[in-house]
Amino acid sequence: MPRRGGSNNNTSINLDFLDSIPPSPEKSTPTSAHTSNARKRPRVDSNNGDITTVNSNAVLAAKRLAATKKLKKDDMADYEAYLNDSAFGREARTHLLMLQVNTKLDKIISSQPTWEPSSGLMKNINSYVASSSLSTSLLSFRGDSTRDLVVNKLISLGLDIPENIRQDAAAIDRLNKAVEEAFTQRRSSMKKIIRDSMYHKVGGSWVRLDDQDCTNIYDLTKSLVHGTHSSLTAELCARVAIFRMVYVGSPGKEYWVQVDGTINGIRKKYEYKRREIAKAVKFILEEDRQKYGINEYTITDDDQTDIQNEVDQLIQAQNLKSSNNDNDEEIDAEINGPENSSTEEAQARNDGEPGSAHSPSTDKDDDT
């Protein structure tokens, strides 16, 4: 027996029998009840890295969400297919759906009826047209300038008007026509009220009333402002007196042309001097008061409405802009006058003071 702790090179244990033991497998993570339900990683495409499967819990949550939206069976099937698709597939599906939505929107837009002024817009049109027609600053009842003023105001308010109406030639044309028609109707109704203040119909003919039986200027003006945002004032009564004066001489189709000529004629006659114009207008008003109806009333100014004040300011600004477009020599003569009139007198040019008498025509065939 060899010594304890010694060495023996000639004796050893034969370990060849260990060669029959199979090699140990690679170390793996043990599974347990705790790890068996761990979240599974989605399989990744080795070519482009796209996820090709979605965690079942996420799918179930998405399904529950879809169920609350009450989708149809076919939509649910498409939804599940979308969830289980690759990232590229989902992106392609989304883009395709966007194209389909755009196509449907184009069809809806193209099938919409052509824009027309709504009833609410027409009410606003009539309101601003009435205030413009009854403004004592208005210099012309004909032409495009006053129409454009109302159109621009309505567009700035944006009430029942498309945002891009200035880029839509057809829509802006319909708006212009609606305002033009409102002015035509307003002039017609004003002219008929003036006619009825002096005439009544017997059979098929209009018969002139005696002067004392005619409507006095106060009641006539009151009839014209009824149902509008305009107020009865002495200045407006004077403007209406000019309307009636012109009607006596020119009740036909040239009536409003003659009104424009009369309003602007007196301004030129008195060289746009405010005091002189005021004296002339007051004279015309007093003549009307003495001639028509019973002169037993006092004219007091009612408070102006916000709309009427706004319209007056817009018209005055337009008058000033128009005067600046005239030639320099004419501007100098009209603003300063041949006698270097005061600033107050010169400003009358831009305030739209009424004008002088004008030889009226006698054409009675037209009533608008």
Order of helices and strands: HHHHHHEEHHHHHHH
* Proportion of beta-strand residues: under 5%
Number of domains: 2
State the secondary-structure class: mainly alpha
Give the strand tally. Answer: 2
pLDDT averaged residue by residue: 79
Shape: rod-shaped
Strand order of the largest sheet: 1-2
Largest sheet: 2 strands, antiparallel
Q: Radius of gyration, Cα only, in angstroms? A: 45 Å
Helix content: 40-55%
Note the main attributes of this structure.
single chain, 368 residues, mainly alpha, two-stranded antiparallel ribbon, 13 helices, 54% helix, rod-shaped, disordered N terminus, disordered C terminus
Can you characterise this structure?
The structure is a single chain. By secondary structure, the chain is mostly helical. The protein has two domains: 66 residues, no CATH class; 233 residues, no CATH class. The chain contains 13 helices and two strands; from the N terminus they run ααααααββααααααα. It has a two-stranded antiparallel ribbon. A hairpin with a 2-residue loop joins strand 1 and strand 2. The N terminus and C terminus are likely disordered.
SSE diagram, text form:
Elements lengths: L55 H13 L4 H11 L3 H25 L7 H15 L11 H13 L11 H28 L2 E4 L2 E4 L8 H9 L8 H16 L5 H15 L4 H18 L14 H19 L3 H9 L6 H9 L17
